[in-house]
Amino acid sequence: MKAFFQTRLKKHQKHMMRYMKYVLNDHFVLIMTFLLGGVGFYYSNWLKTLSTGYPLGGLLVLIIWIAALHIGRFASLAEPADQIFLLPKEKQMRSYLSAAFSYSCIFPFAALLLISAFTMPLVVVSTGNSFVTFFFYLLSLWGLKISHLEIERMNIFQDMQKARKNAYFLWIIFTFVVLAISIWLQPIFGTILSIMQIILFHKLCWQTMNVSLDWEKMIAEEQDRLHRIYQFINLFTDVPEIATKIKRRKYLDPLLDRIAFSQHNTYLYLYARRLLRGNEYSGLYLRLVILGGLLLYFVSEQWFALGIGILFIYLIGFQLLPLYQQFQFVPLTKLYPLKKEQKLTAIKKLLGLLLTFCAIVFAVIALFSLTQWSERLIVIIGYLVMVLFFVEGYLPYRIKKMNN
């Protein structure tokens, strides 16, 4: 069964690599480099204002680490047909799940490595410990995450809900104790306790468990995990695995009613209706506007605020471009006597409204985060110029490439 898992894992990795070229594109790398550089700059300056023994630093690190321990779920790679074709192999599934457990540790370990490295300067300032203790903190976090995944694996067995809740409650207590000892006493003591709790939870959650698999629950958990991954990938490209969900959203009808009922507004109405009643584009737009606004709220430097706003306006517009092709295979749009240029006019008008609203939100936030009126004026003008450039310059260029 371990060989079977490896075969399925290779298939899964090959499938995911098809999307990575869209996720790790030039736009994403540029934005992440810019954001990480800016965050690192402000983080460094903030640390310089703190004195050694900063009292709230340890508590902040504790909260961040506990939240980080919940990153990453148990990946069984189960498929819907497994409950039929693998049912006769249920007794051999423990070796399969052991291999799945090892694979499930890879991403959380990498995430904890990055997060602990990022928070280590704050730990040093707050506790006075040296950077050498980083390895003890990291081992403690890894040990706690192993136990957390053990508890997650319990969820795919029958009648384990109560036992899982009790195990999770015990794990939370251990997590607070281990991290508190590591931060405020001795990191090495926390590491020793972390290793001890690995043994405890392994026996509690795995070695003594002899119940049957809950096949439906295992498949549902894996489908939910994959859906979350596909939702992230969907920010960069269309994902066939995500089924489009349409909601009535009657409370948004007044927005559609503002579009004049005439032939030249046909595509504008279709695009607006698709945006408002579909989940992927409206959710994506709101998430990016909120994320950009939150980042701008904590920025007090003129050029950095200008750069973040322009990047998010561009990113929002770029992610909404696939709206243009939403109705190209609908027969009624071919039969109805519509001019070809109407599609471009409609998408320009819709994106112009959306990006202008986004620019206004960012401008209002910049009014609070920046102190000088000259800085505020430059940032606001920069946002509006970016909207104009995208709608009148970049958008027609991209549409022309899409049509060729």
From TrEMBL:
<feature type="transmembrane region" description="Helical">
    <location>
        <begin position="377"/>
        <end position="397"/>
    </location>
</feature>
<feature type="transmembrane region" description="Helical">
    <location>
        <begin position="21"/>
        <end position="44"/>
    </location>
</feature>
<dbReference type="Pfam" id="PF05975">
    <property type="entry name" value="EcsB"/>
</dbReference>
<keyword id="KW-0812">Transmembrane</keyword>
<feature type="transmembrane region" description="Helical">
    <location>
        <begin position="96"/>
        <end position="118"/>
    </location>
</feature>
<feature type="transmembrane region" description="Helical">
    <location>
        <begin position="167"/>
        <end position="185"/>
    </location>
</feature>
<feature type="transmembrane region" description="Helical">
    <location>
        <begin position="304"/>
        <end position="324"/>
    </location>
</feature>
<protein>
    <submittedName>
        <fullName>Multidrug ABC transporter permease protein</fullName>
    </submittedName>
</protein>
<feature type="transmembrane region" description="Helical">
    <location>
        <begin position="350"/>
        <end position="371"/>
    </location>
</feature>
<feature type="transmembrane region" description="Helical">
    <location>
        <begin position="56"/>
        <end position="75"/>
    </location>
</feature>
<feature type="transmembrane region" description="Helical">
    <location>
        <begin position="124"/>
        <end position="146"/>
    </location>
</feature>
<dbReference type="InterPro" id="IPR010288">
    <property type="entry name" value="EcsB_ABC"/>
</dbReference>
<keyword id="KW-1133">Transmembrane helix</keyword>
<keyword id="KW-0472">Membrane</keyword>
<dbReference type="GO" id="GO:0016020">
    <property type="term" value="C:membrane"/>
</dbReference>
